[in-house]
Amino acid sequence: MNELLKNVLYLSAGAVFLTKDKIEALKGELIGKGKMTQEEGKQFVDELVKKSEAIKGQLEERIQQVVAEQLKKMNVATHDDIAALSARIDELAKVVEKGQSEE
After folding, report:
1. Range 12-30 burial, b when 16+ CB lie within 10 A, else e
2. Where does this protein have coiled-coil stretches (predicted)?
């Protein structure tokens, strides 16, 4: 498997995204230690959740792009390729049936 694809998969499977629960726990810890106020904590959580969602979207797009590139390199048939072949088979079957009925 291509090294880039491996890295992307490992990255996505790892702790890339902080869950809201983990962010809330971190906020509580920082507030408890006096490192931030409740209001700062709320802003902190909102900002991290927003950034996490943005990164998640970017990573999902990148994963889709890398997978598509790898499938193309491996010359794997796509859904569209299979649908086109299926349509062609249907057309040929009709031609064969028409030819047989004329005999």
Report:
1. eeeeeebeeeebbeebeee
2. 49-102
Distances, alpha carbon 15 to alpha carbons 2, 18, 22, 54, in Å: 22, 7, 11, 15
> Would residue 47 count as lying in a domain?
yes
Query: Which tens digit of pLDDT belongs to each residue from 47-72?
Result: 877 877 788 888 889 988 998 888 88
- Domain of residue 35: give its range: 3-76
Mean pLDDT of the chain: 79
End-to-end, the C-alpha distance of the chain in Å comes to 53
Q: Is residue 99 part of a domain?
A: no
